[in-house]
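Task 17 of the worksheet. Students: predict the tertiary structure of the chain below and write it out as C-alpha cells. Keep your answer in the requested format; marks are given for formatting as well as content.
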Amino acid sequence: MNYLSRRATLRIVTLFITANIFLWSNLPQGNAQQAPANLAFEKLLEVWDKIQKFHLHPPEKTPEAVILCVQKILQGGVARCLNDPHSQYHTAEQMTELQISSDGKFGGIGLYLESVNGKISIVTPIDGTPAQRSGFFRTNDVIVEVDGNDVRNETLESVVNKIRGDAETKVSVRIERQGMLRDAITLTRAIVIFSGIKAINIDHDSVYIRISEYNRQTLRQFLGEQTSRFILPKPRKNIIYDVRDNPGGLLNVVEHMCGSFADGPDDILVMIKSRNQEIFATPASISIPNQYIGVFKKTYPINAAVLINQGSASASEIFAACAREKIGALLVGEHSFGKGSVQTIISLLNGDGLRVTTHEYFVGPEKVAINHIGITPDHIVKQGQRPDGSLIPFERGNPNEDIQLKEAIKLLRNRAR
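Model answer:
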C-alpha cells in the first residue's frame, strides 16, 4: 500500500483549496463560486484514482509525482498531467453529446456544423433531413440566429444544442450567406440518423463510398451500400473508399467493418495491447455474424482503393490498413495522422466523465505500430494547392475536381487490365 507523507498531503490539500475556483471552471463546467473545496478535493482524488487504474501509462505513485500531476491538471487539465492530448475531462453535458455522437441519432434538422474563425458555419445538410429537404442551406452559410436569438458569439456546442430538440418541435434559423443576411427559416425537427456513409455511382465500373464517421449507424449502412451499389444489381469492377479527414470513432464499429474483408472467423483483424495483455480481435472473438464475415470477398472479388490524408486517424487508419492487408486495396493520397491509441470513456460519480488512453493498437500480421508513425500510401498523390499552401476547394466524389479520387480510379482500371 502506498502512503503519502503528512507534508506532501498538506501541500496537495493546499493546491486543491487555493486553486478551487480554477479547477471548477476548467474541469467540470459548474458554478465555481459555489463549489466547496472538499468537493473539488474529492473530484481530483476520483480523477487520480481512475488515471491510476486505467491509463496505459499512468504517473508514478510517489508523493512528488502526485503533486506534479495535480499542479499540471490545475494548470492545463488532465492531458497535461499525462502528457497525452487524447485524455481529457468531460462535463455531464459533454458526456451526453458523446453518447449522441456514438449513437448517430438525434432530434434536430440535420445540419453538419463546424467552427471556422469563430463563426459557426454549415459544412453540409445531411441527406434526407428537414434541412436538406428545405433546399435552403448551403455549404459555408454562417448561423447568426436561432429562434430569434443572436448566436454569433456563442460556441459550436451551444449553437448545436439550441438547434437540436425533440422531434415534431419547431426551430427558426437565420443565416448569413456571402456577407448578406437571409430571412430566417422555420423547420420542424425530426429524428436525424447520421451514419457517416455516402455512396456515389461514378460510372458503370466504379463506386465511391465516403466514410466520415464510425458510429453505431455506420456499420449497417456500410454493409447495405456495398451490397446495393457495388454488388447489386450489376457488379462493378472498382470500389474507392474515402476516409480522408476522418479522425476516427468507435473501435468495435471499424472492427466489424474490417470483418467484411476477413478470410474467416479466426482471421486476425487488429491487435490491441493494454498494460498487461495483448488482445487479438477476430470475427469470432467480437461476435460478427457468419453471413457478414468476408462477405464481399466471397460474393464478388473486390478491386479496391482507400483514399487517406493527414486527417485520417485512428479507426480510419485501422480501416485502411485492414483493407490493404485483407483485400489488397491500394492506399492513395497522403501520409496519415498516426494515432494508434484507444481511449475509454469512464463515468464519474457526478455524471461527468473521463476519457483516458487505455490501449494501443497494431495492424497486420507483423503487428505494425501506427501511433506517432502513421501509414504511408502506396501512391502519394497531393490534392491541388494554392501558392500559400492552402487547399483548392473541390467536391468530394467528383473525379473532375478530386485529384486523388481521379488517380485512384486510373490506378484501379490499369490494375484490372
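Marker's comment: The radius of gyration is 24 Å. Confidence is low (pLDDT under 50) at residues 1-37.
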